[in-house]
């Protein structure tokens, strides 16, 4: 308040440009100090510094409200960003699902074309090409065994040739080495036998030749090592090829054995059924001669349509299984996306806000306990908290993984039971249809045998039997082909589902990383804003303290001016007393009356001296209070230094705050210097008071001299009495004013000390707030670091799994490509190999 004013019940004052004015009234004194927008009001009742504390509290409340609004805005923005990221993830998932559906539809079309091709080929030819008779199967096994034995013989022959070549190369290396040593020895003998005139030149040549031989030996050694490494690599290649061929051969043998067992059981059951039917027909070949053969031939014609219906029924479940698998696949993805889109219940409540029970808030810590802890104790305390948090996080992860595997098992159980149930129903329907067809054939054959023209045609019966066997074998062959296609489709579905799940996991991990980076950036911005707010608060507090120190200096200057005015008044009184001495010399007559009055004056002077002594005692007490205040400031300085060391040890990122703390400490030292100056000024005032007491003593001595001289001035007793009464009244007023001013100064100093204590309390509260925020940011950084490490580990594991699956697929492709001549007899497998090769080449180019 630069040009304002304030008034109370005791007085009123208006601030000038220097910020100070005193107004006295009959009731008391009112003071207004204004500088830099701060306002201090002191009155007789001791109510000083209230305006500053109220303003500071109001500013702190406003700052805290703004900070709360800012944090709420940040939380709202984070929720919006989460919703946007969830919508983006859903869009990506739908795009991936559409791509997978398109691929599955393409695969289904390819399977449909393959089925049509097989049906047209098998129905058109009417021959059993896919099923081999026992002799043909035996020949095929013999050919396969001879092929494998020939391959093994070739590899053994290659290994033997390689060993022989290795031995020959070693012998050649030994021969070359011997010849080099022989040549070296002959050259050395020739050099020894030469003349003594060429000794120097011979030594030089010998040194050059020795260096050349060393180089030759090195080259031979390098050739030998390279040859050995080449041989080892060739051996390793042969071993790997042997191992892979053995493994593939074992797999093929197992598959062949299983296929043989299945086909043999099917053939046996069908033969037994057909033989029983033929026996029954042969037994029933007598009796009926007049039969409606047109109806029987029509029934025979419908047999073909029924067989076609059976084939269609065999093909339709396959399509239904494929569609059912696609629906299951869609359900799985929707469920996974829903589970991922919903936030974890352990971290968020029902309304999406963070659960306060799971978040370790730094305000719950006992800061009084932390203040008394040492460095090692603090480290151990926070390490224990971090270990507890890690254990809680690990337990949550364990629970989530158990829940995931439980749901996966339930899903697989449901899917497996559904597929088996559908297959059982389909096979039951087929079993019901096949006996009906067989019964109709039996009726037809029985009626045919009763026909007189066909009784003796046993050869036609044999042909019919062979044809039925061929039809059954063709049906079984088609069924086996369909089963193989089903298995291949299932494998492709599993590969597609695994690839899509891995792609989703990778995309989710990348999005989580982006979110973490954005959260870290927002946290950095929040910390910057907090540091700027703290800097402004520190600056405002320092400005207030500087203004208070300036006000104290101005008050001390005013006190000095008052003391000088009192000294001038005393000198004036001394001059008047000297003039009165000259007058009292002439007034000896009034001596006796003046003696009585002087005794009273002596009593009053003694009373005033006692008052002066009391004032000196009060001043000494005030000095002690100032010393106590300085000691408290020293202790506060030590506490501030301790807090500063704790802050510097706890976090290196708060160096800017350290510099600010150092500036505040320097300002406190300056305040201490100013307090010392104030103490010196108080000492000066005490010296002035002692000088005043001395002057009073001198005045008393002068009064005694005047008493001696008043014996001559008895006539003017009344006039002198009046004048002395006036002087005593003036002295009493001056001392009363001095006492009141000293009491006001003491009150102002006490109020200022209270203000400084309030400011120091606010500073300690701000330091505690900074410490809490520091702990909160540490916890956030630790959580984010753990999340980033987990995401990186998951990405690495997914990459390893993808690489392993690609390697396995390459091995399968190599094995199948190796046996492609054998697999040519199975239609459709070569096209599947081509598709796998294209997929591998496409993935290789993409990677």
Summed up:
The chain has 847 residues and is an all-alpha fold.
Structural commentary:
This protein is mostly helical and 847 residues long. Among the domains are: 134-280; 527-767, Orthogonal Bundle (Helix Hairpins), CATH 1.10.287. Helices cover 85% and strands 2% of the residues. The protein has 12 helices and 5 strands. It has helices at residues 50-125, 134-193, 199-283, 293-341, 367-372, 375-450, 458-585, 591-650, 655-709, 717-818, 820-823, 829-846; strands at residues 5-7, 12-14, 22-24, 29-35, 38-42. The chain has a 3-stranded antiparallel beta sheet with strand order 3-4-5. A two-stranded antiparallel ribbon has the order 1-2. It is elongated. Residues 1-50, 122-147, 189-208, 286-292, 317-365 and 451-455 have low confidence and may be disordered. Residues 468-695 form a coiled coil. It comes from Perilla frutescens var. hirtella. Keywords: Coiled coil. InterPro entries: WAP (IPR037490). This is WPP domain-associated protein.
Secondary structure elements and pairings:
Elements: E1 5-7, E2 12-14, E3 22-24, E4 29-35, E5 38-42, H1 50-125, H2 134-193, H3 199-283, H4 293-341, H5 367-372, H6 375-450, H7 458-585, H8 591-650, H9 655-709, H10 717-818, H11 820-823, H12 829-846
Antiparallel strand pairs: 1-2, 3-4, 4-5
Helix pairs in contact: 1-4, 1-7, 2-3, 3-6, 3-7, 4-6, 4-7, 7-9, 7-10, 8-9, 8-10, 10-12
């Amino acid at each position: 308040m630069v040009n304002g004013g304030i008034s109370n019940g005791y007085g009123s004052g208006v601030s000038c440009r220097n910020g100070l004015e005193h107004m006295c009234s009959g009731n008391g004194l009112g003071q207004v100090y204004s500088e830099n927008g701060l306002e201090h009001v002191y009155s007789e009742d001791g109510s000083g510094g209230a305006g500053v504390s109220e303003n500071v509290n109001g500013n702190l409340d406003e700052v805290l409200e703004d900070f709360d609004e800012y944090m709420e805005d940040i939380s709202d923005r984070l929720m919006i960003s989460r919703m946007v990221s969830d919508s983006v993830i859903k869009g990506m998932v739908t795009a991936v699902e559409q791509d997978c559906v398109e691929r599955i539809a393409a695969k289904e079309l390819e399977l449909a074309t393959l089925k049509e091709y097989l049906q047209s080929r098998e129905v058109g030819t009417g021959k059993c090409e896919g099923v081999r008779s026992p002799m043909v199967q035996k020949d095929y096994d013999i050919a396969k065994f001879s092929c494998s034995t020939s391959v093994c013989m070739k590899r053994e022959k290659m290994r033997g040739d390689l060993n022989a070549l290795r031995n020959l190369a070693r012998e050649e290396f030994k021969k070359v080495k011997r010849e080099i040593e022989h040549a070296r020895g002959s050259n050395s003998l020739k050099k020894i036998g030469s003349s003594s005139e060429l000794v120097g030149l011979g030594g030089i040549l010998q040194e050059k030749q020795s260096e050349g031989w060393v180089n030759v030996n090195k080259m031979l050694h390098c050739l030998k090592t390279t040859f050995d490494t080449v041989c080892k690599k060739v051996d390793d290649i042969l071993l790997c090829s042997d191992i892979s061929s053995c493994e593939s051969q074992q797999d093929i043998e197992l598959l062949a054995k299983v296929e043989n067992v299945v086909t043999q059981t099917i053939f046996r059951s069908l033969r037994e059924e057909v033989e029983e039917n033929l026996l029954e027909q042969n037994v029933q070949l007598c009796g009926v001669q007049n039969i409606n053969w047109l109806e029987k031939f029509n029934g025979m014609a419908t047999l073909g349509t029924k067989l076609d219906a059976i084939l269609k029924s065999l093909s339709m479940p396959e399509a239904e299984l494929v569609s059912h698998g696609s629906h299951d696949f869609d359900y799985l993805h929707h469920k996974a996306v829903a589970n991922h889109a919903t936030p974890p219940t352990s971290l968020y409540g029902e309304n999406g806000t963070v659960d306060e029970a799971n978040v370790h808030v730094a305000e719950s810590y006992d800061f009084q306990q932390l203040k008394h802890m040492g460095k090692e104790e603090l480290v151990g305390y926070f390490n224990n908290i971090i270990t507890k948090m890690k254990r809680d996080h690990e337990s949550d992860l364990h629970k989530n993984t158990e829940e995931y595997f439980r749901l996966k098992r339930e899903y697989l159980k449901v899917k497996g039971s559904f597929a088996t149930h559908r297959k059982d129903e389909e096979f039951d329907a087929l079993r019901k249809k096949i006996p009906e067809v067989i019964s109709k054939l039996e009726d037809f054959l029985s009626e045919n045998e009763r026909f007189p023209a066909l009784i003796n045609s046993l050869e036609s019966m044999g042909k019919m039997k062979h044809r039925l066997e061929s039809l059954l074998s063709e049906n079984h062959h088609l069924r086996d082909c369909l089963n193989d296609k089903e298995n291949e489709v299932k494998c492709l579905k599993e590969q597609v589902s695994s690839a899509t799940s891995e792609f989703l996991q990778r995309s989710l991990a990348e999005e989580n990383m982006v979110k973490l980076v954005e959260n870290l950036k927002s946290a950095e911005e929040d910390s910057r804003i907090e540091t700027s707010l703290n800097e402004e608060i520190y600056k405002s507090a320092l400005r207030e303290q500087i203004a208070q120190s300036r006000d104290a200096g101005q008050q001390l200057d005013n006190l000095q001016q008052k003391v000088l005015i009192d000294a001038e008044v005393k000198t004036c009184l001394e001059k008047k007393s000297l003039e009165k001495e000259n007058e009292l010399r002439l007034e000896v007559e009034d001596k006796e009356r003046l003696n009585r009055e002087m005794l009273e004056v002596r009593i009053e002077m003694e009373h005033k001296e006692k008052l002066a002594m009391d004032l000196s005692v009060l001043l000494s007490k005030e000095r002690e209070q100032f010393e106590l205040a300085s000691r408290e400031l020293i202790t506060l300085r030590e506490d501030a230094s301790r807090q500063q060391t704790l802050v510097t040890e706890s976090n290196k990122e708060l160096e800017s705050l350290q510099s600010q703390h150092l500036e505040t400490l320097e300002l406190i030292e300056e305040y201490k210097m100013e307090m010392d100056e104030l103490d010196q000024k108080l000492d000066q005032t005490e010296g002035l008071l002692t000088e005043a007491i001395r002057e009073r003593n001198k005045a008393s001595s002068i009064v005694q001299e005047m008493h001696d001289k008043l014996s001559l001035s008895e006539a003017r007793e009344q006039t002198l009495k009046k004048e002395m009464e006036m002087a005593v009244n003036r002295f009493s007023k001056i001392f009363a004013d001095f006492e009141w001013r000293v009491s006001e100064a003491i009150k102002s100093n006490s109020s200022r000390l209270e203000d400084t204590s309030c400011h120091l309390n606010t500073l300690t509260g701000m330091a505690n707030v900074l410490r809490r925020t520091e702990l909160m940011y540490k916890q956030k950084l630790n959580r984010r670091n753990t999340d980033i490490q987990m995401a990186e580990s998951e990405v690495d594991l997914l990459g390893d799994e993808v690489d392993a699956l690609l390697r396995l697929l390459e091995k399968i492709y190599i094995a199948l490509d190796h046996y492609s001549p054998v697999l040519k007899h199975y239609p459709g497998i070569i096209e599947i190999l081509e598709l796998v090769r294209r997929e591998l080449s496409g993935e290789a180019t993409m990677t």
